[in-house]
Amino acid sequence: MRYIIFGGNLPAVTITLNRGESIYTQSGGMTWMTDNISMETNMRGGLFKGLSRMLSGESLFMATYTAQEDGAEITLASSFPGSIVAVDISKGSVIAQKNAFLCAQPTVELSMYANKNLGSALFGGEGFILQKLTGTGYAFFEIDGTCYEKVLAPGEVIKVDTGNVAAFEASVRYEVETVKGFKNILFGGEGLFLSKLTGPGRIWLQTMTMPSFVQRIIPFLPANRD
Q1: What three-state secondary structure class fits 152?
Q2: Residue 111: what pLDDT?
Q3: How far, CA to CA in Å, does 56 sit from each of 39, 51, 200, 212?
Q4: What pLDDT was estimated at residue 15?
Q5: Taking the CB of residue 218, how many other CB atoms lie within 10 A of it?
Q6: Does an H or E element contain 72, and which?
Q7: Boundaries of domain holding 116
Q8: Which among 59, 83, 85, 154 is least buried, having the fewest CB atoms inside 10 angstroms?
């Protein structure tokens, strides 16, 4: 399998498959493909796993695309201006924000991840339900805005504005802490909470979040004058 990510801030990924190689994505995720690829749609793992994927922001049914000959190509595009990230899951399981999954090799398992840290779930900007990618092979996920990737050393800490955490390896500890200082809370513009990530492991941060983007464009939308 080979891939190329293109398109700048409106990205897509073209994946080249050899005969018998496959990728899977949520139903309706394909943008275009060559004629030498077959498609099979199913719940992938059964009803229970399908329902758990729905809770994590994906569709009940998944589509698997398999190359019938060498050099078959399939292209998938991001659903929002941002970045597409390719990750070798063999190096470690990854936990990602809801709706992040784009596609993966069949040896990668997509499942729901329940955030057990109550503070992080309530105030971290990611919610109770996240996505977990395990297994071997490559997975692709999409994030909002530009991606910043960093490898945290053991015990190394980075603090992030809520919602700007796109994904992190399962070895990273994810918590939420309160902003200190009365004036910082009232006038700092960052809100009451920050996400705290502690190494070791890789993290992926995003420069934009969908809620903040929507909030910025609302004042420019036409008002309903009825």
Answers
A1: strand
A2: 87
A3: 23, 9, 25, 21
A4: 98
A5: 8
A6: strand 72-77
A7: 2-219
A8: 154
pLDDT at 29 over 50: yes
Please work out, in degrees rounded to the nearest 5, the angle formed at the alpha carbon of residue 50 by the alpha carbons of 17 and 64.
Answer: 15
Check which CATH number belongs to the domain holding 27 and give it.
Answer: 3.60.160.10
Tokens of 51: 């329902």
Distance CA 11, CA 3 (A): 13
Length of the chain: 226
Q: Using one digit for the tens of pLDDT, what is the confidence trace for 51-69?
A: 554 555 556 688 999 999 9
User: Quick one: tokens of 187?
Assistant: 């006038």
Q: Which is more confidently placed, 137 or 43?
A: 137
Instruction: Please state, in angstroms and rounded to a whole number, the distance separating the CA atoms of residues 65 and 41.
Output: 9
Look at residue 225 and tell me if it is in a domain. Answer: no
Does a structural domain hold residue 226? Answer: no
How far apart are the C-alpha atoms of 180 and 197, rounded to whole Å?
Answer: 17
